[in-house]
Design goal:
Rossmann fold; Hypothetical Protein Ta0175, Chain: A, domain 2; 2 domains; seven-stranded mixed sheet; four-stranded antiparallel sheet; about 35% helix; about 20% strand
C-alpha cells in the first residue's frame, strides 16, 4: 500500500451496528495507520460523535464532519472551522421554518438535533415529487437551501452548498488530499452527496438504503457485508491492490 488514502465514513448504520465487525475493522486499521487518514461524517453533531468514539472501538479520527455536512471540526478542537461556515450565503432559518410550518407532513425533530445551520424534520415515506416541491417553494421565496431526505424518514434543510459531499472535499483540501485519494463510505441518502464528488472512490455497505444501492459506477464498490464489515471489505478492495 504505497498510496496514502483519506477515508471519509458515515458513522451510524455504516461503521456502527455490528460490534464484532467493528473490532475486526479496528484491528485492520491499527496495522495501517501510516497509510490511512480517517474522517467521520455524521448527521449527528460533533460532541455526539465524540461520545461514540469514547464508548465504542471507533478509532480517533483526524476530523469530524457533523450535522449532515454543516459543521467541520478538527478532532480535539471545540470550535468548528469558520472558513466552512463563511461560505454559506442566503441562509435564513426563521424564514425557512415559516415556509415548512405549512406542511402537515413535516414534524420538527427534537431541539438537540437542530442547529444554526441544520433544520431537521421527520417526514415518513415522502415522495420525490414532494421533496422537489419543497425545494422549489423555498427557492421561489428566495431561500438558498439544499433539501436532503434519507431513510424514508429524515428531512434536513441545509444552507446551499452544504452537504456531506462538499464538506468531504473541503476537509480533504484542508488535510492535503486530492479527490482521487479519497474513499467515502455510507449507507443512506444523506451520504449520497459524498459519492457524487469527482474522482472519489466509494464503499456502499450491504445494509444500505435503496438510494445508495442504486449507484452504478466503477468507482463505487458494493460490499457483501453490512456495517463495519462492509466498510472493511470495501477498504480492502480499494487499498490492498
Amino acid at each position: 500500500m504505497d498510496r496514502r488514502n483519506l477515508v471519509v465514513s458515515d458513522v451510524d448504520g455504516t461503521l456502527l451496528g455490528d460490534d464484532a465487525a467493528l473490532a475486526e475493522l479496528r484491528r485492520w486499521y491499527d496495522e495501517r495507520r501510516d497509510a490511512l487518514t480517517l474522517v467521520y461524517s455524521s448527521g449527528r453533531f460533533y460532541h455526539s460523535v465524540l461520545e461514540s468514539i469514547r464508548t465504542t472501538l471507533l478509532p480517533e479520527p483526524a476530523a469530524v464532519i457533523g450535522g449532515v455536512g454543516t459543521d467541520v471540526h478538527f478532532f480535539g478542537e471545540e470550535v468548528p472551522l469558520r472558513a466552512w461556515h463563511d461560505g454559506f450565503e442566503g441562509w435564513d432559518p426563521p424564514g425557512v421554518r415559516a415556509v415548512l410550518a405549512a406542511y402537515r407532513e413535516l414534524v420538527p425533530q427534537p431541539e438537540h438535533l437542530q442547529s444554526d445551520y441544520k433544520l431537521s424534520y421527520y417526514g415518513h415515506d415522502l415522495s420525490p415529487a414532494f421533496i422537489e416541491h419543497l425545494q422549489t417553494q423555498l427557492q421561489y421565496r428566495g431561500y438558498q437551501v439544499h433539501v436532503v431526505y434519507s431513510s424514508q424518514r429524515d428531512l434536513d434543510v441545509l444552507p446551499h452548498g452544504a452537504n456531506k459531499g462538499t464538506a468531504a472535499v473541503f476537509i480533504a483540501e484542508q488535510l492535503g488530499f486530492r479527490g482521487e485519494d479519497v474513499i467515502v463510505c455510507g449507507d443512506s441518502g444523506n451520504d449520497l452527496a459524498m459519492f457524487e464528488q469527482p474522482a472519489v472512490r466509494g464503499v456502499v455497505v450491504a445494509n444500505a438504503h435503496a438510494e445508495l444501492k442504486a449507484l452504478r459506477s466503477e468507482r463505487v464498490y458494493h460490499a457483501a457485508r453490512s456495517y463495519a464489515g462492509g466498510v472493511l471489505e470495501g477498504l480492502r478492495h480499494w487499498c490492498d491492490q
